[in-house]
UniProtKB/TrEMBL annotation:
<feature type="DNA-binding region" description="H-T-H motif">
    <location>
        <begin position="29"/>
        <end position="48"/>
    </location>
</feature>
<dbReference type="Pfam" id="PF00440">
    <property type="entry name" value="TetR_N"/>
</dbReference>
<feature type="domain" description="HTH tetR-type">
    <location>
        <begin position="6"/>
        <end position="66"/>
    </location>
</feature>
<dbReference type="InterPro" id="IPR001647">
    <property type="entry name" value="HTH_TetR"/>
</dbReference>
<dbReference type="InterPro" id="IPR039538">
    <property type="entry name" value="BetI_C"/>
</dbReference>
<keyword id="KW-0678">Repressor</keyword>
<dbReference type="InterPro" id="IPR009057">
    <property type="entry name" value="Homeodomain-like_sf"/>
</dbReference>
<dbReference type="InterPro" id="IPR036271">
    <property type="entry name" value="Tet_transcr_reg_TetR-rel_C_sf"/>
</dbReference>
<dbReference type="Pfam" id="PF13977">
    <property type="entry name" value="TetR_C_6"/>
</dbReference>
<keyword id="KW-0804">Transcription</keyword>
<dbReference type="InterPro" id="IPR050624">
    <property type="entry name" value="HTH-type_Tx_Regulator"/>
</dbReference>
<protein>
    <submittedName>
        <fullName>Transcriptional regulator</fullName>
    </submittedName>
</protein>
<keyword id="KW-0238">DNA-binding</keyword>
<dbReference type="InterPro" id="IPR023772">
    <property type="entry name" value="DNA-bd_HTH_TetR-type_CS"/>
</dbReference>
<dbReference type="GO" id="GO:0003677">
    <property type="term" value="F:DNA binding"/>
</dbReference>
<keyword id="KW-0805">Transcription regulation</keyword>
């Protein structure tokens, strides 16, 4: 019974993601989320208190999902450079997926100034991301692949800023095919930052 409830909740969250990617934060409603999930509005209300509760849980669900995917990709590799490459590949996953996520994510960030819950969820997401890159840097320093004097905390934050900056630039670019260029630029920027030996 619990598993079925979890599946239904995830179905609604996927629908909320779809609805928000099409309509945007301000226009999405519980009814449009219900329509995308092909359930009644009452079913949405059963699992979520209101629109803000639904969207807060959506942001948390989305960022956790992304973090877990990136972590699994990195952990599937054994060498520091393999981990770094896997991380970039998992971040620049595919044009369609990146575009959909960042359209929704930027909508959330535009609300974060007035919404402490969103800020907290995003900070937790960033801490998770910094954790991934910190582990990659530590592993590279131990094996002598990366510069020893790098400040791990600062460099991890810079790496996340590079990712977001490049993906936002790519999203604003008319040329959808430039995704590969931005992915390669990200990887090269990381190599330069980490001063690969």
């Amino acid at each position: 019974m619990k598993k079925k409830a979890e599946e239904r909740k995830n179905q609604i969250l996927r629908a909320a993601f779809q609805a928000m990617s099409v309509q945007g934060y301000n226009s999405v409603t519980l009814q449009s989320i219900a329509d995308h999930a092909e359930v009644s509005k009452g079913v949405v209300h059963y699992y979520f208190k209101n629109k803000e509760d639904t969207l807060s849980q959506l942001l948390e669900w989305l960022t956790n999902k992304i973090y877990n995917y990136e972590l699994a990709s990195v952990n599937s590799e054994s060498t520091p450079l393999g981990k770094l490459k896997a991380y970039v590949n998992s971040v620049f996953v595919a044009p369609e997926k990146n575009a959909k996520f960042y359209r929704v994510y930027l909508d959330f960030l535009s609300q974060a100034g007035q919404n402490e819950t969103y800020r907290k969820i995003n900070h937790h997401f960033y801490q998770n991301c910094w954790g991934i890159t910190s582990d990659i840097i530590t592993s590279g320093q131990k094996t002598g692949v990366f510069e020893q004097n790098i400040n791990i905390e600062n460099t991890s934050k810079t790496m996340r800023a590079i990712i977001d900056g490049l993906l936002i630039q790519w999203l604003m670019n008319e040329d959808i095919n430039s995704h590969q260029y931005y992915k390669e630029t990200c990887y090269q920027s990381f190599l330069d930052l980490l001063k690969v030996n």
